[in-house]
Amino acid sequence: MPPYNNKTKKPLLNETGAVKKDWRGRISVALVYPNSYYVGMSNLGFQAVYRMLNELDHVVCERAFLPDDPYGHDKEIYSLESNRTIRDFDIIAFSISFENDYINVLSILKKTGLPLLSNARGNSHPLIIAGGVTCFLNPEPIAPSIDCIFVGEAETILPRFFEQFDPRERRADMLKNMANAINGLYIPEFYHTNYNKDGTIKSFEPLTDVPGTIQRVYAKDLSAFSTCSQILSKDTSFNGTYLIETGRGCPHGCRFCSAGYIYRPPRFRSLETLQHTFKDGARLSQKIGLVGAAVSDLPCISDLCSLGEKNDITISFSSLRAEALTHDLVSALGKSRMKTATIAPDAGSEKMRNIINKGITEEDILHATQILVEAGIPNLKLYFMVGLPEETDEDVLAISELVKKIKARFLESSRVKKHIGTIHVSVNPFVPKPVTPFQWSQMEGVGSLKHKIKMIQNELKAVSNVNVTADSPKKTLVQGILSRGDRTVSTLLQEVLKDGGNWTKSKKKSCPYETFFALRERDRDEIFPWDFIDHHIQKQYLYQEYKKALQAKKTSPCDTDRCVKCGVCLKDEKNG
Description:
Elements: E1 27-33, H1 37-40, H2 44-55, E2 59-65, E3 91-95, H3 102-111, E4 127-131, E5 148-150, H4 154-164, H5 171-181, E6 185-186, E7 191-195, E8 201-206, E9 214-215, E10 242-245, E11 247-248, H6 259-262, E12 267-268, H7 271-282, E13 287-291, H8 301-310, E14 314-317, H9 327-335, E15 340-346, H10 350-355, H11 362-374, E16 379-386, H12 393-417, E17 423-429, H13 446-460, E18 466-470, H14 473-484, H15 489-498, H16 503-509, H17 513-518, E19 533-534, H18 539-550, H19 568-574
Parallel strand pairs: 1-2, 1-3, 3-4, 4-5, 9-19, 10-13, 13-14, 15-16, 16-17, 17-18
Antiparallel strand pairs: 5-6, 7-8, 11-12
Helix pairs in contact: 3-15, 7-8, 8-9, 11-12, 12-13
């Protein structure tokens, strides 16, 4: 479906005219999202890279997506703009946001007729590159299939990469030169993993003269540029909403959240930059979505809400922190005709919120519920996790009890408005993520997770106006394997592809990936598959946070003006 302008109903950016039509003398890039158009075009990072590439005069970039039948026999993947097979491009660039899409990367390579493994491809094939958040968490399960991986934020890597890329050069020499000249470039074929007898990693070493560690790079000044929607489409989860990124990272340090660590230090855009982008968006759509890990921490959030009210714009948020909701802010949200607010208590008991370092109390959550409904926002969406470290059945039942208390406060405020909305409760099994304090933690088994989800569903099934949904523990376990797996998991991915996406069948034929990568607590000094990436966070700091979690001790939020606890700001200061 073509993109559209919400006010004029005319195309905002034409699908076939969005890029340079003349390929002559230009590097051609097929930017591929390894999922559907609906999911890919809902991803602001994907749209931002599309814009950045097409702003380079010597580059032409077109989009491609996973077909509806990823394991079907249909061949070829075609670009959206010119309907060319992506095999004809100089570069196939994957934007990978979720580990579960690793298998889709292999499916796309197979359909395109390309060898699945990098060492089986040569100069006659397109260069396969990849970026996205999974690539600077843990790219190892997909690494054998990728020629070049971007570790960090695209704004800092893409321009330098395309200054040096030349499809006519001998590929290995060019990549080696790039690996030494550009921070954030990881070329998997230049590295080798040595293992101990028990399967843990003994060492990770370069095979040639390239850096031993890869520096995660990031844009220090977000106000120097805007990250916003490039194409508005009804065929996305945001349905024509103009998205604006307010910042990156989060100061609160929730111990399960990778975004709070890999995007350190937390950064926000200035009011001036955001106002300019907001006004651009208001000319194109009456709906604007503010995106970021800590939107409600944005210092100028009230100013943007007031701007929305003045321009009759509906504003939505990716999520809100309960303790950050002031009456002024919530009032502005209500006036913007916002219908559903999202809050993530993540745990039901105070003990569990201390363990994950959530930093909010039960009263914060109940107060947020009250003022949201009083402001005319009728519906709430609540996110919780089960399977967290040190969690008991009593803690799980505390989720149901908290939802009931929220419902009581919700009902009390709704009666005044004479309208009762709906509370949507989303329950998600916990997955330990790299570069977080919980990277040492084991994941809970499928049976136990199903039991805990059922407990919540049973407790809430008779509560009116409350809907409960839950992620599949089986699918979450797959995510756990891919999140903390090493290069050997690439063999499992290839088996899954052969078996038409049947993970259960493939895992039975392979080594016990579940036990080793997902269900096992890690030793303190174990080398992790992702340890070759330098995020500037001291591993010892993360381990101390893990131990504090097991003791239910809290840590105060980041103070980037003077804090040197985790090492990011201190190391960045030393490096200028």
